[in-house]
Structure formats: C-alpha cells, structure tokens
Amino acid sequence: MKVLISADMEGATGVTCPDDCAPGHARWEYNRRLLTGDVNAAVAGFAAAGATEILVNEAHADQRNLLLDQLDDRASLLIGTHKPLGMMEGIDRSPDAVAFIGYHTGAGQPGVLAHTYLPNTVTEVRIDGRPASEGRMNALLADEYGVPVVLVTGDDLCCQDAADWAPHAATAAVKTCVDRYSAVCLPPSRSAGLITAAARDGLTALAGRAAVGATAGPTAPPPGGYTYQVSFDAAHLAPAASYIPGVDQIDPLTVRYTLPTMYEAIRCFRAVTRVATSAVENCYG
Ligand SMILES: [Zn+2]
Question: What InterPro entries does the entry give (predicted)?
Fold first, then answer.
C-alpha cells in the first residue's frame, strides 16, 4: 500500500507563531525537528498498518523544512519548490491514501496561524460558496484522483474543519488553539503517540472499507466545475489578479473564476496568489 504525506508546518507540534515556521529563523530551525518528528510518527503508524511505500511531500514555504537525515528510513522525501501540484505533488503517482500533516484552518477562520497560502494578503477563499482551507481544496483534488484522505494532524480547530472535508480521516490534534498565535501544546513525546495511533487507525479503516467495496474511487467534478472566490486585504490586489484570463474582479477586494476541474482550479489559485504577491507593497500591503 502506497501512502503520500503532504507535510505543512503551521499545524506541527509546538508551532504557534510566525517565527516558528519562518525559514532562516532560529525558531524555525528548532521546529524543523518537531515537524520531522510528527512526520516520523505518521510513518510509523502507516508502516504498522501495512504501508509498503511512503512518499513525503514538503508543503510549507520554500518546501525545504524537514530534516532528511532524521527522517524514518521507511519514507522518502520530495524536497523543493516549483512542483506542478505544489502541496499535493505526488497525488498523481497512484498513492492508495494521502495524509495531511501539520495543517491549519483557512484565512479568516479561527485557528493557530490560520491562513490560506499567503499569511495575511488573502483574507478568505470560497469554493462554490463555502469557506475553503488548504485542507479542503487539497482534499477535493485528492477526491478527483480517487485518493482518500486517511489522516489529518494540526490544532484542534483544523481537526474539526477536517471532519467536514475528510469525514473518513483519523485526526490527531497536537495542540489546542487559544488564539491565532498561541496554543496549549503537547510535547512531542505525547503528540507522536497520538499521530502514530491515528495514522494506523486511518489506514486500517481504509483497508476495511476497501475489503467490503465501500471506497469511492475518483469523484467527478460538479457539472459546472469549481468556482473560486478569493478576497484580499487591499484594493489594488484584486485588479492585479484579474490580469489572469478568466479571473474576474467582482468587488474592490475580490476575484472569482470557474474552471472545470480541481486540478485546473487549484493551479489557477496558485497563479492568483503569485500575481497578488508580486503586487503587494511593503508599507500599505
Ligand atoms: Zn499551509
């Protein structure tokens, strides 16, 4: 059984503040070990449940966070940026299951380090009218490839969010949100146990559903495709994003586009965030 792990950082054990996961910062150096520990805990659980191949895809910032020499040798690591599917690179390599480690809630929602791609520039993303976290959009992409989400780890609010877009996934809450930059955190010796148990349970449950023919297979996109609505924190960003063909400005702060598949919709979202980032100005945002 092949498992893909998408490893973000804001939802990792012990991470609560921007510096904790900002590449180059001393706290980031420290927390790389904790993130690697969360991933290793998941690898142990998946291996116990029969996983024979585990690919870990780096999904945070410049996607060079995990410590390769400390990674469980039952896994391999996809490091670096400019991957066609970004956080979800590897979903097209026929994994049997996918796990979201170190995830977080979306922009505008409560939760530790809540955001969607950009720290503050994007204030809300809606997909077909519903607020969408990175977890929701990545789960929709996984659905399109017929790959079930079996594990989600992050703070308690991320795990609650996951119940809506990955109802069969096991979850492990490694911290309890107090506000956007603070949480009650479990030490890694305890969070690792929770993650390992959830990984084992999530993959075992999938095998059980597969044995009785209860797995879903690829989900066809809705007939009208997916409609993204992306809101920004400054009024020059929506016009900039609307330079992209098919992306329309619908109010001073918001753009909207519709594409037939999540594959196309998520890639367009990446383009929208990159154009917006290029237009952000240091003083006024
Ligand atoms: Zn993220």
Answer: DppA_N, Peptidase_M55, Peptidase_M55_sf
**What is the 10 CA–ligand 1 centroid distance (Å)?**
6
**What spacing in Å lies between the alpha carbon of 59 and ligand 1's midpoint?**
7
State the greatest distance between any 2 C-alpha atoms of the chain, in Å, as a whole number.
Answer: 58
Interval between CA 216 and ligand 1 midpoint (Å): 26
Burial class (CB in 10 A: 0-12, 13-18, 19+), 197: middle
Q: Tell me the CA–centroid distance for residue 116 and ligand 1, in Å.
A: 6
Please tell me the distance from the alpha carbon of residue 131 to that of residue 192, in angstroms, as a whole number: 30
How far is ligand 1, taken at its centre, from the CA of residue 105, in Å?
8
Ligand 1 mean position to 8 CA, how many Å?
5
Q: Cα of 102 to ligand 1 centre, how many Å?
A: 8
Ligand 1 center to residue 262 CA distance, Å?
A: 18
Considering the four listed CATH numbers 3.30.565.10, 3.30.310.50, 3.40.50.150, 3.40.50.10780, the one that applies to the domain covering 2-211 is 3.40.50.10780
Share of the chain above pLDDT 70, in %: 100
What residue ranges do the domains of the chain occupy? 2-211, 226-279
Structure tokens at 182: 């603070």
CA distance 220 to 91: 16
57 Cα to the center of ligand 1, angstroms: 13
In 38-193, DSSP assigns E strands to 53-58, 75-78, 97-103, 122-127, 130-131, 149-155, 170-179, 182-185
**Ligand 1 mean position to 236 CA, how many Å?**
24
Write the pLDDT tens digit of every residue in 201-257: 999 999 999 888 888 788 889 999 999 999 999 999 999 999 999 999 999 999 999
Question: pLDDT by residue (tens digit) across 164-217?
Answer: 999 999 999 999 999 999 999 999 999 999 999 999 999 999 999 988 888 878
pLDDT surpasses 90 at 151: yes
